[in-house]
Design goal:
Number of helices: 14
Largest sheet: 3 strands, antiparallel
CATH class of the largest domain: Mainly Alpha
CATH topology of the largest domain: Triger factor/SurA peptide-binding fold
Shape: globular
Helix content: 40-55%
CATH architecture of the largest domain: Orthogonal Bundle
Structural class: mainly alpha
Number of domains: 2
Distance between the termini: 14 Å
Number of strands: 7
Order of helices and strands: HHEEHHHHHHEHHHHEEHHEE
Radius of gyration: 25 Å
């Protein structure tokens, strides 16, 4: 999951303080609109001849929370305009190949991605492809000449692919779990292999439970900012169970089952020309440089956020939980909600 979190973090890392948006330099000429956008194009009709336009629907969405994505959209357009000026494009086939490669890297099927990972991030497939994959590929092409990979960075990726690996089992609990209860569980499993396997098979995470917590062997220099699992995997002795660790994903306990030694016949010199090693080193370097590169693009673009969300009812208290939504009869006599006053979470992101 680290690779997907890293990919998703690319645009999130472009967030800029609100004070920048409030600056008022000389007003630039209007930006070119995407070719598919026509504010007067009807998206629906009432009474057969009264149109609801794209502009009306767009304002409706903006006023009801769409403005939260305005910064993300502005950042995406900055990237797209730079790409257009340099005649850099990304095809649908390239985007699909990039997604397939991401999923292969984390050992996830497309079905798992659609049913489990996307809901966890609160995103649709369209959002992921357009707001994560496309900008990442555009930035990669725009920065191609600026990313210089060193031998030291190549050696780290060699170590990742061909170096020593650790075979572990992992039990993962959500951060909402009671820490005292987890301490009691650890005391039961620390010296009992069968008990560890039983808890691993019944843990809350369904993918880990299905494999009794067995995941792909851990190597050094894995993608991602949270190195807790990687570092602990290389500290444990075979058969040893770790302490309970708090990570970005939740509370984790690891057990080391095996150490896979590096093949002595495979060296950095024999694999130095391996394109997979260079590609991994390039992508790791790219991820480090993207925030700096984008900051320059944004400075050049001088973005001005002029939209102001409606202030009406902004500070009223949330409706009581007993409030009934407006309903209309549905199939089988069950009510179908058409207006829900409750505020829904954004998928737990």
């Amino acid at each position: 999951m680290a690779m997907l979190r890293s990919a998703f973090a690319i645009l999130a890392s472009f967030a800029v303080a609100a004070s920048l948006a409030a600056q008022s330099p000389v007003k630039p000429a209007p930006l070119a609109k995407p070719a598919s956008f026509d504010p007067e194009r009807p998206v629906a009709y009432l009474h057969g001849n009264i149109p609801i336009t794209m502009a009306e629907f767009g304002k409706y969405l903006m006023d009801r929370g769409g403005s939260e994505k305005l910064e993300l959209f502005v950042n995406r357009r900055i990237i797209e305009l730079e790409a257009e000026s340099r005649k850099v494009t990304v095809t649908k086939a390239e985007m699909e190949a990039a997604l397939a490669e991401d999923l292969k890297g984390i050992g996830a099927s497309q079905e798992d991605f659609l049913k489990i990972l996307l809901p966890r991030y609160g995103k649709t497939l369209y959002e992921w492809m357009e707001d994560t994959i496309r900008p990442r590929l555009l930035m990669s092409k725009l920065m191609q000449a600026d990313v210089k990979v060193t031998d030291e960075e190549m050696k780290k990726q060699f170590e990742r692919f061909f170096g020593e690996k650790r075979v572990i089992q992992m039990i993962l609990w959500p951060l909402s779990e009671d820490a005292k209860n987890l301490g009691t569980i650890r005391a039961r499993i620390i010296n009992d292999k069968n008990e560890f396997d039983s808890v691993a098979r019944n843990q809350p995470n369904p993918q880990l439970a299905a494999s009794a917590g067995r995941i792909k062997p851990i190597s050094r220099y894995l993608p991602g900012d949270d190195k807790t699992i990687e570092e602990m995997s290389f500290k444990l002795k075979v058969g040893e169970v770790s302490e309970i660790m708090k990570t970005q994903q939740g509370y984790v306990v690891l057990k080391l089952n095996e150490v896979i030694a590096q093949d002595p016949k495979v060296t950095f010199e024999t694999e130095k020309q391996n394109p997979h090693i260079y590609k991994a080193a390039f992508e790791a370097k790219l991820e480090q440089l993207i925030p700096q590169y984008f900051a320059k693009l944004r400075e050049k673009a001088v973005p001005q956020i002029t939209y102001t969300p409606p202030s009406d009812w902004k500070n009223l208290p949330a409706p009581a939980s007993t409030a009934n939504p407006i309903t209309t009869p549905g199939s089988g006599g069950a009510p179908t909600t058409i207006a829900d006053p409750t505020i829904r979470p954004n998928g737990g992101k």
